[in-house]
Amino acid sequence: MLAGARTVEQVDQNLGGARRLEPDVVRSIDAIVAAQFAPARATPTAHAAAATWGERERFIVARLDGRMRYEAIAAAWTDRGEKPMIAAQVKVFVDRLAEQGLVV
C-alpha cells in the first residue's frame, strides 16, 4: 500500500501507527543502503564504450570515479535543466555496467 494524503487529517491518519526506529536499527539500515549504493569506478573500457552511448550514459560514466555518490551524479544532471534523474536510475545503470565488468 502506498501512503498518500491530500489533507492534514489524512497525513495524521497515515502516521498514526508509525513509530520511531531505534538508533542502532537506523545505523544498520544506513550501512546496508550505503553498501548497495557505494560509488563505482568506470574502467577504461567503459569510458571508451561510452563514446558511442547516449548523453545521459556518457554523463554518468564520466563521473564514476569511485568517490562521487549516485545522488550527486543525478543531482548534477538534473541541475543542468535536463529531464530529472534520481540516484536509483544511476544505480540501475551502474549495476548493468557491473554485469559487463565495466565498473569496479
A few lines on this structure:
This protein is mainly alpha-helical and 104 residues long. It is built from six helices and no strands. It has a domain at 44-99.
Helix percentage range? 55-70%
- Strand content range: under 5%
**What's the total number of strands?**
0
Q: Rg from C-alpha positions?
A: 18 Å
Mean pLDDT comes to: 91
Shape: elongated
Structural class: mainly alpha
How do the SSEs run, as a string of H and E? HHHHHH
Question: Count of helical segments?
Answer: 6
How would you characterize this protein structure?
The protein is an all-alpha fold and 104 residues long. The chain has a domain at 44-99. Helices cover 59% and strands 0% of the residues. The protein contains 6 helices and no strands. It has helices spanning 8-15, 23-36, 44-50, 55-63, 70-79, 87-99. The longest helix is centred in the N-terminal third of the chain and has 14 residues, at 23-36. The radius of gyration is 18 Å and the shape is elongated. The relative contact order is 0.13. The mean pLDDT is 91.
Task: For the structure shown, list the relevant keywords.
elongated, 0% strand, mainly alpha, 104 residues, single chain
Topology:
Layout: H1 8-15, H2 23-36, H3 44-50, H4 55-63, H5 70-79, H6 87-99
